[in-house]
Amino acid sequence: MPKRLLLIPAAGVGERMKIGYPKQYLPLMGEYSMLEVTVNRLSAMELFDQVAVVVSESDAYIDKCRFDSEVSIFRCGGATRAQSVLNGLKALKAEDEDWVFVHDAARPCIDKDSVVRLIESLEDSRIDGAILALKVTDTIKWVNEDYLIEKTIDRSHCYRALTPQVFRSGQLIAALTSADTLVTDEAGAMERSRAKIKVVEGSSINIKVTYPNDIDIVRQNLKALNKKRGIYK
Ligand code: CTP
Ligand code: MG
């Protein structure tokens, strides 16, 4: 049976958050940092055989984190997200056929129902992997460098990619090794090898904390989630 491994890239610097330290260490719920909330919520789901976090070699905060269950810490972050994930995959030493779920440290509002849907989608043996995503509801414009609209994209084909994204360890390592290191998600690397990747309906509260304005929204989302399911604190 292939294992289910969770890999959380947390080696970014959080430039757009502008708090002077990496956003994954921002206190989010009481004393719990964003990374602690993300990891503890996912561990509490009891769906993974191993949980691992990738941080940068110079990370000065990870040792103070309090995780509720066992977490492997890999100090092998790279210059881009794709490189951090690739280095983390190698450190995991998984079997080629193991499923690796990659989830942004910056998405603490991940809910169990979405992850269960993602896992269930893997029962279809024709697919190489799956990602959580949301159907686009706004009309989408393709805009040029002068901010002039060139065309409207048919939004019925447009989805916003979220995380987790899940692929076989061996295939994902191969895809990330040959892809541009600026690729922004795992699916982006896998698409180039014509992989069959299923889009699974995610949740609109699973936002990525990117800008300061996102923090209040995420705190509210977490309160609502915890009231509903009582998963974590
Ligand atoms: N990440 C990583 N290694 C990098 C860059 C990003 O592990 N070299 C991680 C981040 O820590 C985050 C996730 O990838 O959990 C998504 O990236 P993003 O939201 O862009 O975070 P940052 O890169 O830290 O933020 P910014 O782009 O504003 O600097
Ligand atoms: Mg970034």
From TrEMBL:
Pfam families, A to Z: IspD
Reaction it catalyzes: 2-C-methyl-D-erythritol 4-phosphate + CTP + H(+) = 4-CDP-2-C-methyl-D-erythritol + diphosphate
Domain of life of the source: Bacteria
UniProt GO molecular function: 2-C-methyl-D-erythritol 4-phosphate cytidylyltransferase activity
Pathway it works in: Isoprenoid biosynthesis; isopentenyl diphosphate biosynthesis via DXP pathway; isopentenyl diphosphate from 1-deoxy-D-xylulose 5-phosphate: step 2/6
InterPro entries in the cross-refs: IspD, IspD/TarI, IspD/TarI_cytidylyltransf_bact, Nucleotide-diphossugar_trans
Keyword Kinase part of the UniProt annotation: no
EC number, as in UniProt: 2.7.7.60
Record-level GO BP terms: isopentenyl diphosphate biosynthetic process, methylerythritol 4-phosphate pathway
PANTHER family, alphabetized: 2-C-METHYL-D-ERYTHRITOL 4-PHOSPHATE CYTIDYLYLTRANSFERASE, CHLOROPLASTIC
Similarity comment: Belongs to the IspD/TarI cytidylyltransferase family. IspD subfamily.
The protein's name in its UniProt record: 2-C-methyl-D-erythritol 4-phosphate cytidylyltransferase
Organism: Candidatus Aphodousia faecigallinarum
Organism placement in taxonomy: Bacteria, Pseudomonadati, Pseudomonadota, Betaproteobacteria, Burkholderiales
Gene name in the database record: ispD
